[in-house]
Amino acid sequence: MKEFEVISRYRQGESYRSIARELGIDRKTVKVICDRYNESMDVLERSRSEQEVEEATEQLVLTRSYDSSNRKTRTFTPEVEVRMKELYQQEGDKNKRLGAHKQALTATAVHEILSEEGHVIGYRTVAHYWRQMKQKTKEAFIRQEYPLGYRVEFDFGEVKLEIAGKVQTYYLAVFACPASQFYWAYLYPNQKQAVFQDAHVQFFEMVGGVYQEVVYDNMRNVVTRFIGHSEKELNQSLIQLSLYYGFEVNVTNCFSGHEKGTVEGRVKHIRRQCFSKTYQFSSTEAARTHLTQRLIQLNQTSQISEEKAHLMTYRPPFELAEMIQCRVTKYSIIQYETNAYSVPDYLVGQTVQLKIYPDYFVVYANHEEVCRHQKIEGSHQYQLDIYHYLKTLMRKPGALKHSLVLKHSPDLKALYDLHYKEKPREFLARLDQCRSLSRDQLIEGLSQNTTSNSSLPLFQEVEAMTEFIEADWQRLNILYGLERVTSEN
Which segments constitute the Integrase catalytic domain (predicted)? Predict the structure, then answer.
């Protein structure tokens, strides 16, 4: 840039002395630049040789660099360099002693120390060499290219969604295949070990085979504990998965997320592409359907079809269930985690077995399935089935009116209040007759042969009553929660 300014002023007729004075450079330097310019222009005007033209062009347009390696420093003497290295070593010792702190030795402080010790050196020179001492050597990355079917990388990513008007935190379990550029993800309510296992089973089931190596970071689902600086004890559940499917486990070094390759960036990409524009859904299943549809679009250019031919032999799904035992309370309820679930009333006082999957569990008594429940997303909530209480209610029909199980089904509660208040036994009998019907068919069956004094159509009566009961049920839940907090405090 300075050469261009010199030549520009020279072409406008300014003298060497004037140019040197205005630009703050030596007059001899100005003369050298102008002479080289004149010489190049003469060659271009009179020469017909391509080589001469090329050389003259280079003289004009190429930026020139000068060898300053042999120049002697004037103020950064060997004594100053030794002293600055001592200060840098002391700074390292201080960091080890204090840990994270804000008393770092700055270039200004170093300059003050050197000046107090009698060294004549400018601040800019000190700042330049102090910055060089502190600057760490940047790490070089070696680009990897994996064969098809060899490697897949796994990670979790957090995403916030609004489900049925309520903001909830979910987790994306993501598999990234660097060779085929294929990505798979599934939405889970947590990152528990059962979810971790389920993600693997679903992924291997979907691709129809197994990769030779699965790469993880140091998440709790993978590493149980660290032994020394680099030794790690793997989670037993992961070991079982690895033995069953036959893949090798590769755990990255701590604080080395780049070793996972593509998956960490792909988690952010999937979250942005799938849920940045659309984040409100009627249910978790609706959100999962949306995710699946978006992944199909994102994977259109992948080579997953070719990669499937290179995968290891597919195996039947790994059994995920966890078995636990629960005692049935006098209210015919079992407690799982922080929620309550109903079971058939004849099991009161007995111990039942729960076979737990990521999204639901099955209840067994005497080795026979008696019921199953979807897991509740939340805490201190009930999931009650009125059919579990029919036998008891037939003996105690008066208990039906204010029962929690009836309030738990607002549509049934609405029908009961409209048409069966004085006929609880008839309501229970008809409920028993409609046991095999769907929910809509059940409501329709209970509504037949009923009379009402209201001028509204029956379905509108039920709908209005249902809304009222649901609102009342919400108020009860709020009161229950406040009472619970008060009693605990």
Answer: 143-325
- Look at the alpha carbons of 43, 44, 49, 51 in this order and tell me if their dihedral is positive or negative: positive
User: Locate tokens 């070593």: which residue?
Assistant: 89
Write down the domain spans for the chain. 2-61, 78-134, 151-308, 321-383, 389-489
User: Which amino acid would we find at residue 448?
Assistant: Q
Topology annotation, domain 151-308? Nucleotidyltransferase; domain 5 (3.30.420)
Burial (CB count <10 Å: 0-12, 13-18, 19+), residue 459: exposed
Answer left, alpha or beta for residue 481, where phi above 0 means left and psi between -120 and 50 means alpha.
Answer: alpha
Q: Which residue has the tokens 């660097």?
A: 178
pLDDT in tens, 54-79: 565 555 555 555 555 566 556 788 88
Distances from the Cα of 409 to the Cαs of 77, 96, 387, 427, 460, in angstroms? 87, 63, 12, 14, 17
3 state DSSP class of 249: strand
Confidence check: pLDDT of 23 > 50: yes
Predicted pLDDT of residue 64: 55
Residue 487, pLDDT above cutoff 50: no
